[in-house]
Amino acid sequence: MKLYGSKGCGSAVVEVMLELAGIEYEYFDSIVWDPFKHHEELVKVNPLAQVPTLVLDDGSILTESAAIMLWL
Q1: Is the dihedral of CA 62, 37, 10, 26 positive or negative?
Q2: Which residues contact 67 (CB under 8 A, 6 or more apart)?
Q3: pTM of the full predicted structure?
Q4: What are 8-43's pLDDT values in tens digits?
Q5: Which of 17, 32, 27, 10 is closest to 70 using CA atoms?
Q6: What CA–CA distance (Å, rounded) separates 40 from 22?
Q7: 61-67 contacts at long range (C-beta below 8 A, 24 or more positions apart)
Q8: Are 36 and 52 in contact (CB under 8 A)?
Q9: Which of 7, 9, 6, 13 is nearest to 68 (CA)?
Q10: What single-letter DSSP state applies at residue 59?
């Protein structure tokens, strides 16, 4: 899995949940106001460039911290 997140944008709680669940993931610090830091990658998977965005192993996309936590 890939988690696109940023400090102060709700991704920390998703990271904690992934860790507690023992799920392996890659983290990409995607500061939405810094288009040079994983921004292009984020826009490819989520055109709205929302963080957090979780890309599942099957390619499915989840956004919104609460929705991701419910899925986990």
Answers
A1: positive
A2: none
A3: 0.88
A4: 788 999 999 999 999 999 999 887 666 667 788 888
A5: 17
A6: 28
A7: 65/10, 65/11, 65/13, 65/14
A8: no
A9: 13
A10: S
